[in-house]
Each structure stands twice: as C-alpha cells, then as structure tokens.
Amino acid sequence: MQKDFRLEWRQRAALSGMLLYVGSTVFVCYLSFALRGGELPVPAWNALFWIILLFTAVNAVAKGFLQESRGRLLYYYTLVQPQAVIMAKIVYNALLLLGLALAGFGLYAVVLGNPVQNMPLFLANVVLGAVGFASTLTLVSGIAAKATNSSTLMAVLGFPLMVPMLLLLIKVSKNALDGLEFDASRSSLLTLVALNLIVSAVSYLLFPFLWRS
C-alpha cells in the first residue's frame, strides 16, 4: 500500500486526470439538464451518479495491475506473499475510490442539487459501493493483466460482474433519497456486505494461483 501511495503521489497527473474525468462528466450532466432549465428527476439523479462512479472506478482501478511490468511483478514475487499483494491492492483501491466518490458527490450535489434525505444511509451505501467496486475490479484487473488486449478484457469481465452490485446500490440510494430508515434497506445492505466479503475471500484464495501463472 505504501508503494502504491508513493507511486500515485509521483504520478499526480493520473490522479488529476481522474478528478478531471469526474468533473467533466458532472459538467456534461449539468449542460444536459440544469443549464437548459430542466429539473433532474430523482431517479435520473440517482442513476447518473452511480454510472459516473462506475466508469470512474473502472478507469481508476484498471491501472492497478496493468501498469505493473512483468519484471516488477517477478520482483514482487521474491519479496512478498501473493495474498499481501491482492489485499493491499484492494484496500488501496477502495480508499482511492472512496475519495473520488466523495469528491464526485460533493461536486454533483453543488451542480445538480442534493435531494438526499437520509445522508447517513447514502454515505454508508457509497462506502460499500467503493469497497465492492474496488474488490471486484482489482481481481479482474489482475486477470486481465495476464492476457493480451488487457484493457478490452477488463471491460468485458468487469461490467457483467458489477451489474448485480450496481442494482443493489441504486436501490439503497433510492431509499436514502426518499428518506426511508435503515430498516427498509437492511437486507440490501447485508447483501452488499456479503458480496464484498465473498469477493475479497475469493481474491485471497485464488490470487496465488493467478500470481504463479
């Protein structure tokens, strides 16, 4: 994790590019709705937020393994256990996505309004979404890095895996937007937690076999 943070700090242009991506997509939404005098409906506000976050996650997490050269991976192989590599990548990507999600939500709320009525539920859902996107896409990035056409494979493998999680995230966010209590979203939140734990456990167990390939 320390190596990834140092690398991100040295390559600040990449982080600035991700922030610019979030800002530009929010600005396009503003041009499409608010600037033309139309009010963005709550379901559309919710769906657009998660679409922006999903594509931001793909762009941010894809470089997790794709930027590592084969020689550097072999060097890591002599230093650390594969489980340490995959868990460090997941935690780092989760923190990165959480920061981008909160920054994106702040800008999104300023530009297009903030209809969220249950903010604690919405923020808890954003945290679970960031962890879920990070854990799933990190494993997919590790698989794609071992193949040719890795960027295409990342998209092909990643999006189908994200659809069930994305549907749950949108559902919980809709409850938060409507001001419903935690009890109305309890089962969905528990399912999201279970999905995150399952993906993390699968990554921990299977990544050593991928690491040796």
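The above is record 1. Record 2 follows with the same two-line structure.
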Amino acid sequence: MRKPVVGVIGNAHRVENRFQVQMVGERNLRAVAEVSGGLPMMFAGAPDITDIGALLDVVDGIVLTGARANVHPTRFNVDPCERHEPYDIHRDEVALALSVACVARGVPLFGICRGLQEMNVAFGGSLHPEIREIPGRMNHRMPRLENGEIHPDPTVVFADRHDVELTPGGAFATLLGCEKIRVNSLHGQGILDPGKRVLVEGVAEDGTIEAIRIAEAPTFALGVQWHAEYDPQRNPVNRKLFEAFGEAMVTRQKAAA
C-alpha cells in the first residue's frame, strides 16, 4: 500500500514586499511525514487555481494549518476592523468549502489553530477577533519581549502555557487516554459560538474552546486551537493526534481498495 497523500493548505505571503507566494511551515510538513506517515503535498489557498473536487480525488487527508492571517469577519456576519488584520480571504474561500467537502466525502480532516477556526466557521459558527479582550480570559498570543518583538527562542514561544480539560468519554479523551492535557498557545482569534455540527471537546482553564470535532463525521474530523505540529515527534499528546490522523487515512485507503 502506498503512503497516504496529505494535502496541506498554503498561506498567502509577499516575499521582499514584491513576490506573491504560497507558503507552508516546515514543521507541518515534517509532522505529516514523520508522525502521520504520509506524503505531504502543499496546495494553494487560492480558489482560482485550487479545484477542491480534483484535490480530494488525489489526497487521503487534509491538514488546515495555523496562519498569521485571521478569518475574515464577514464570514460570520461581523464588520471587519483594521486592528484585526491581516486577512487571507482567498484561503478562507478554499478552507471553508474544503472543510464541508472533507466531512461529506469522508476524507480525514485535521484543523490546527486557524484550521480549527475555519472548521467552526464552515459549519456556521462565529469567532472573536481577540479572545484576550473577553473579561476573564488570558492572553493566548505568543510571548513577546518588553519591546514588543516576538521572543527569539522558539522553545519559549511554543512552550506549553495552559491546561485543557477534555470531555470525559469524548473522542479526544479516548484517543489521548486522559481528561486533562497541557498545550502551547499562539492565537488571538478564537471560537465564540460553535457551529451547528461542532462539538466542543476541550476547554482551557479560562473557558477558551481548544478542541472540537465535527458531529457525525464518518472519519477523523478534529480541530485543535494549539499548535500540535510544533513537536509531535516528542510530545505525546501531539504525537497521538498525528498518529490517529495517519491511521484514519490508512483505514480509508483499505476501505477503497
């Protein structure tokens, strides 16, 4: 049996303020290859050159990665604000339609950070542009120095920062074999209202939604608010998630054989 092919969504970037490119963080690619056992294949977060039907004909699973850009507020009936830029409206269009299509076609889907947010919006949910502005919430953004610059040490940036309580007997608790985990935190936007088929399976100590699954999905359709791709080679929680994603793809391959 061949290696599962995993579609990993790209993000729009401008290099040297001149060249428009699509980029994927290497940690996402390595997590897919080294832990899920798949062959990562980046596809563009651009609807004019990405045919979702054709894409799903050739991949065995989809990863919606984290990204700097926020989901555009008009996707959940809120006016946009310059404070919450940048946006990536083309990725929005691809990712939201793709989330629904994956579930409908039984293609394993793993949403990470922005990917979780996209899955929620795709199924009718809403987001808050700055979770830390809600009374009682912590600052979920990445650590910065006193001068405002991002901390230069990635082990500090991606360090575990808060606990997540998992739903007893839920998909995450069953998969991970526990009801409390500790995760990193690198996001500003977060789930406000869950979508119609979005089941909340993990909540941070301040009430922020951190883990979801899509109800009645025929296969793996999970989203996490933390960056599970950072170190799944050594982190047991993230390793189990990527392994389960890989197993779901192999199961789908066998069923189609």
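The chain has a mean pLDDT of 94.
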